[in-house]
Amino acid sequence: MGMGNMGKMMKQVQKMQADMAKLQEELANKTVSATAGGGVVEVVANGKQEVVSIKISPDAVDPDDVEMLEDLVLAAVNEALRKAQEMAANEMSKITGNLKIPGLF
């Protein structure tokens, strides 16, 4: 590989790194939501896979069945995080051209 090709490749890698850093900032502002129990529990997560809000309908609150509410919250959180991870992976693939880079999303 000639020095010109190596220099060109290094510039492409640097651009990809800059694009990925910018994307990570943008992902913090993008959100996905998931619901459970027919919508009585809603969880919103951002592209950094952080839960940013949880809403629980009063209809879901039964003092005699707290375990059901816990299960609904758990299901909604897991689905929101799965969607956030999928969103981040889709956005990252736009930069990497579907190149799988271990450790990234």
Cα gyration radius (Å): 20 Å
DSSP helix count? 2
Poorly predicted parts: none
Structural shape: rod-shaped
| Widest sheet, order of strands | 1-2-3
Beta content: 15-25%
Tell me the name of the CATH homologous superfamily of the domain at 31-99.
Answer: Nucleoid-associated protein YbaB-like domain
The helix content is 40-55%
* CATH-defined fold name of the domain at 31-99: Ybab, Chain: A
The residue-averaged pLDDT reads 88
Most strands sheet: 3 strands, antiparallel
CATH architecture of the domain at 31-99: 2-Layer Sandwich
Oligomeric composition of the shown chains: single chain
Structural class: alpha+beta
Element string (H = helix, E = strand): HEEEH
Distance between the termini: 31 Å
Number of DSSP strand runs: 3
For the record, the CATH class of the domain at 31-99 is: Alpha Beta
Characterization of the model:
This protein has 105 residues and is of the alpha+beta class. The chain has a domain at 31-99: Ybab, Chain: A (2-Layer Sandwich), CATH 3.30.1310. The protein has 2 helices and 3 strands, in the order H-E-E-E-H. The chain has a 3-stranded antiparallel β-sheet with strand order 1-2-3.
